[in-house]
Amino acid sequence: MEVRFDNKNLAIVETDSAHKTKLPPEVVLSARRKIRFMREAKDVRDLRNWKSLHFEKLSNDPDGEYSIRANNQWRIVFDIDESCQPTEINIKAIKDYH
Hints:
By secondary structure, the protein is α+β, with helices and mostly antiparallel strands.
C-alpha cells in the first residue's frame, strides 16, 4: 500500500530528524516498523489480520479514521482510500491515548 502523511512534520518520523517530532525515541522506532509493515501490506486485510496491531475504526470519528498501535500507549491514526491503486493510507497523527 502507499503511505502518505497528512503534514510534513509527521513525515520526518521516518528520517534522521525524527527528534524534531518530540515523540519519545521508542515511539519513533516502533512507528517506523509499523509504517514499514503498512507499506508492505497488500491490502487492509493484512492490517486487520495482524492481531498485535490492534487495528480498529475510531468510534467517535465520522470521517472514517482508523488506528493501529505504535506501542501500548501510542497509536498511529490514519484514513484509508481504497479507490486508489495501490490503496493509499494517509497518516494523520501519532497520538498518546493514555
